[in-house]
């Protein structure tokens, strides 16, 4: 009896403690939900690949230099903020094409918005592509920049050099892969700031550059940046030194800013199979397509790009095989284009020519026409003639017979005494089958 009050007090304390634990748990759950919601909002405002340091570099880049004209058209960009009243930013480029998810960020904004084809890009604007996405940025004339997937670039205004009378644009390459083609007739120089290394590559086109220039800039997984020149030349300034790149050479810049000596690029591979304009048929399951090319000595790997368009913007597969072949077994019906380049560490050589093939789904049985043109009426042998669709395989009485390119065939068959039922079978490349039964009589 004496333990009754103590037991009651203990139960009350236990109950109070349990209530506090529940309250703490609910509070912790609410904090967690708020944190996840906050992360979701940040994910919308700041796409992956753009950190606080990158934002600061955007601001630094925008403050460098002076506003310049250079004859570019003044246009208002929807959503652009931060300009004094009555002023609009100058357009220095146009987003000419895009595929899948591509976002843009105005110079005065921290939020990203969905990009659209034809939008004008001004100084300090940024463009970012997502996975399996791409975009094309066109400057003046034939000067353009192709962005690969997971890429981020920031543009700076065009400046007019008062001494050389050339236009100069600066692009800050943060991440991803870029393939440039500078073929303008006017003098224009492009400065590319390579990743976070602080190194800068200067590439010229037009009269000063001696013609067109083709190149590729890649920010590698180890955060180094590689510049490969396919046509024209470039100067890479890094850590107080300048590396000169001519056609078919490359350099890799470390994140610390040091640039490697120029290395020769691998030559272009030669595609071997399948034959150009080859057709692969299938009925239910997609066919196995094997792509092959010649061996390049001195390469570490290859880069194969498979796309649905000849410009290689709608990319289906981009792989780096170590051997000179690639197999794909899940391609949908349509026309495909492919090319291959050799790789020496991070440096990628010029691509091969473009191969083309088609995938065709066929569920219709082939046409098959057969007639008896000789034999029977006591004769020991008979002659069958017929035609099927080109590419079909023909069997007469279970035996394969030669078929001309036009699909025509003929076959001499041995007849038994009495009525002979001869089965003719045609199988098209997709596996569809057509049958015909011919009756030929041999009298006793």
Structural class: mainly beta
How much beta, percentage-wise? 35-45%
Please report the total strand number as a whole number: 35
The radius of gyration computed from the alpha-carbon positions, rounded to a whole number of angstroms, is 34 Å
- Terminal CA distance reads 123 Å
Instruction: Characterize the overall form.
Output: extended
The percent range for helix content is 10-25%
Main pleated sheet: 10 strands, mixed
Number of helices: 3
Low-pLDDT segments, ≥5 res: 48-52, 54-87
Mean pLDDT: 81
Descriptive report:
With 444 residues, the chain is mainly beta. The protein is 13% helix and 44% strand. The protein has helices spanning 4-45, 52-63, 206-209, and strands at 91-99, 102-105, 113-114, 120-122, 126-129, 134-138, 144-147, 152-155, 159-160, 167-175, 177-182, 188-194, 200-205, 213-219, 225-231, 234-238, 241-245, 249-253, 263-264, 271-273, 278-282, 289-293, 301-307, 315-319, 325-328, 334-344, 347-348, 355-361, 368-374, 381-388, 393-396, 399-401, 408-414, 418-427, 433-442. It is extended and about 105 Å long.
């Amino acid at each position: 009896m004496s333990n009754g009050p103590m037991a009651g007090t203990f139960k009350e304390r236990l109950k109070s403690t349990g209530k506090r634990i529940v309250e703490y748990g609910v509070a912790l759950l609410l904090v967690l939900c708020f944190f996840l919601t906050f992360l979701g909002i940040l994910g919308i405002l700041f796409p992956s690949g753009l950190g606080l340091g990158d934002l600061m570099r955007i601001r630094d880049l925008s403050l460098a230099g002076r506003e310049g004209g250079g004859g570019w058209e003044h246009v208002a960009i929807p959503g652009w903020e931060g300009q004094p009243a009555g002023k609009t930013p100058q357009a220095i480029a146009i987003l000419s094409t895009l595929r899948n998810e591509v976002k843009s960020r105005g110079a005065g904004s921290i939020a990203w918005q969905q990009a659209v084809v034809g939008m004008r890009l001004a100084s300090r604007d940024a463009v970012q592509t997502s996975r399996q996405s791409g975009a094309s940025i066109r400057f003046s004339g034939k000067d353009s920049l192709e962005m690969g997937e997971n890429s981020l670039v920031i543009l700076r205004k065009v400046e007019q050099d008062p001494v050389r009378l050339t236009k100069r644009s600066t692009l800050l390459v943060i991440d991803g892969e870029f393939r440039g083609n500078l073929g303008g007739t006017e003098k224009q120089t492009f400065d590319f700031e390579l990743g976070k290394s602080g190194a800068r590559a200067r590439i010229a086109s037009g009269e000063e550059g001696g013609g067109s220039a083709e190149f590729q800039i890649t920010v590698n997984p180890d955060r180094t940046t590689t510049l490969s020149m396919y046509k024209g030349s470039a100067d890479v300034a890094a850590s107080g030194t300048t590396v000169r790149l001519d056609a078919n050479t490359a350099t890799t810049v470390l994140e610390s800013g040091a640039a490697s000596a120029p290395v020769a690029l691998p030559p272009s591979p030669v595609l071997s199979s399948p034959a150009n304009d080859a057709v692969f048929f299938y009925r239910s399951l997609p066919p196995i397509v094997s792509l092959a090319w010649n061996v390049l000595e001195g390469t570490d790997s290859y880069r194969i790009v498979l796309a649905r368009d000849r410009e290689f913007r709608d990319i289906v597969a981009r792989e780096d095989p170590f051997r000179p072949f690639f197999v794909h077994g899940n391609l949908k019906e349509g026309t495909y284009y492919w090319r291959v380049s050799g790789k020496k560490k991070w440096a990628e050589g010029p691509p091969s020519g473009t191969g083309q093939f088609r995938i065709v789904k066929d569920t219709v049985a082939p046409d098959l026409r057969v007639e008896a043109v000789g034999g029977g009426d006591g004769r020991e042998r008979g002659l069958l003639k017929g035609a099927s669709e080109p590419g079909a395989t023909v069997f007469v009485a279970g035996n394969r017979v030669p078929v001309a390119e036009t699909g025509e065939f003929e076959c001499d068959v041995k007849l038994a005494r009495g009525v002979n039922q001869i089965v003719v079978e045609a199988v098209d490349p997709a596996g569809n089958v057509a049958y015909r039964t011919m009756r030929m009589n041999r009298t006793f």
